Amino acid sequence: MLEKESLELLGNALETLEQGFAALPAPSALPSDRKRLTEVMNEVAVRLQNNYPYFHPQYAGQMLKPPHPVARAAYALATWINPNNHALDGGRASSQMEKEAVAQIAAMFGWQEHLGHLCGGGTMANLEALWVAGQLQPGKKILASDQAHYTHSRISSVLGLSFAAVPTDERGRMDIAALATMLKAGDVGCVVATTGTTGTGSVDSLAEILRLREQYGFRLHVDAAYGGYFSLASNLAPEARASFDLIGKADSIVIDPHKHGWQPYGCGCVLFRDAGLGALYKHESPFTYFTSSELHLGEISLECSRPGAAAVALWATMRLLPLVRGGEFAAMLENCREAAVQLHQRLAQDERWLVPSAPELDIVVWAPRARSASQVSALSQRIFDAAAKHGLHLALVRLPTRFFSRASEAFERDRETVLCLRSVLMKPEHLAWLPRLWEILSRAADEAAKQ
d(Cα 233, Cα 231) in Å, to the nearest integer? Predict the structure, then answer.
C-alpha cells in the first residue's frame, strides 16, 4: 500500500546530483556498520507502525495525508545537501526555488508584486502576519472569529497584542453584525478572516468584511492555511466562491502547502501585498549576508534557519502540478469537495443523523440523533470508537449546539456544546472510496446504538 516507485526516482536523481560535484576529491566515508544500520532502520519501521494509517482513504479524520511522491523524493534528495534557506551561503539553489514557488502561490491570489516566504507552518506564518499588523498598528486589537484557529489568540498573547473573539453565526462564519459593533470602539488594528476553519471548513464573508474595512481602516489578514488552495476549485458554492475570489484584496495571506499542497510537514507560507513591508524586518548581521547582493530570505523572515528541502519539495510539486484552474491539481481538490458534498447528502437523507449546514469545502460535520446534547455526545464517542475497530478513522469536534438549530427534531440542549463526528475528506481518492466509508460508518452506528 505504501508508494515505493519514488525510491527508484530518488536513486536516479541522486546520480544526477552527484555529477554536479564530480570535480571534488572523494571525502573519507563515514564509518558504518551495515548490520547495525539495518537493525536500527527496521526498529524505526516497527515503531512507526504505531500510527493511524494517515496515507489510506479509510483515514478520514484529521487534516493528514501523505506528501505527493515527487515532494517526498525531492525533499529526500535535498537532504543530501541539507540546505538552509536563511542566507544564500546556506542554500543558493533552494532559496531561488523558494522565491519561485512562493511567487506561484501569490499569483494564485492575483498578486504579481508581493513579499513572502515559506515558514515552518501556519502558526509561524500567522505569527509573522500579526507581528506586522502590530508593527503598523501598535497597541491596537486583533479580532478573529470564535471558530478561527486558536493560534491567533495565542500568538496575540505572545506578541503582547490585545485579542478578542468575534461571535459566529450558526454556519460557523464570523457574525458581521457583531464585528461591526466591535469595530465601533475604534481600537481594532487587524481583523483575521478565515477561509476554511479547521473545525467545520466555514468561510468568512470577505465581501462584508471588506466593506467594513473601507469604513474603519483596519488591516485584513486572511487565514487560508487550510482552505487557500480551493481558490482553484470550480465546484464551490456561490457564497464560498465569492469570498475566495476576494482573497487577493487582503493585506496579508497565510496558506499551508503541507495541507492541500501535498507537502511534508512543516511547510507554511506567508504573503504580504505590500512588498515594502520588508523594511520592517531589517536587521544587521555581522557574518551572514555578504556573499551576494541579492535578497537573502533571512532578511524578510522572523525565522532564521529554515529547511531548504521544504522549498525544493514544493517547487518540484508545482513543477509537476501547476497551480492553475482546470489543471490536474485543481481536479484533485474538486474530488475532495465532491466527496464532502456526497457524504453530506447521504447523511442528510438518513434519519439516524443530524447535520448542520452543508460543507463549504471538504470538511463534513454531523451527529447521531438522540434526545439531548449529552446523549448525542456519548453516542458520537461510541460511534467513533466502533468505526475505528472496523478500520474507519474519523475525528471528533465539539461545537455549539446552536449549529444544529436548523436540524429537524433537534435534541434537548442540556449543554451549550455537543460532541460531533467530523471527516476531512482531503485525499482525492476519498470520492471513489465513499461507498466503502459509508458502509463502515453505518455498521458502526448500528453497533453503537445497541450498546
Answer: 6
Sign for the CA dihedral angle at 228, 231, 236, 239 comes to: positive
Which residues are registered as beta bridge partners of 421?
A: 366, 396
Q: Which amino acid is residue 86, in one-letter code?
A: H
How far apart (Å, rounded) are the C-alpha atoms in residues 444 and 430?
A: 19
The rounded distance, in Å, linking the Cα atoms of 372 and 411 is 5
Coil, strand or helix at 272: strand
Nearest to 255 by CA among 33, 88, 102, 76: 102
78 pLDDT band (50/70/90 cuts)?
Answer: very high
Total residue count of the chain as it appears in this document: 451
Burial of 288 (0-12, 13-18, 19+ CB in 10 A): middle
Torsion-angle region of 281 (φ positive above 0: left; ψ -120 to 50: alpha; else: beta): alpha
Q: Model-level pTM?
A: 0.95
Please state whether the peptide bond connecting residue 61 to the residue before it is cis, i.e. omega within 30 degrees of 0: no
Nearest residue to 363 (alpha-carbon basis) of 230, 165, 231, 267: 230
Contact between 356 and 406 under an 8 Å Cβ cutoff? The reply is: yes
Three-point CA angle 165, 213, 302, nearest 5°: 65
Dihedral of CA 95/100/105/110: which sign? positive
Smallest CA-to-CA distance from 211 within 193, 234, 232 is with: 193
Q: Which helix (H) or strand (E) covers residue 375, if one does?
A: helix 373-389
Whether the CB-CB separation of 398 and 200 falls below 8 Å is answered with: no
φ, ψ for residue 135, nearest 5 deg: -70, -35
Residue 259 is given by DSSP the state T
Q: Tell me the per-residue pLDDT of 111-151, one tens digit each, with 9 for 90 and over.
A: 999 999 999 999 999 999 999 999 999 999 999 999 999 99
**Residue in the block written with cell 466503502:** 436
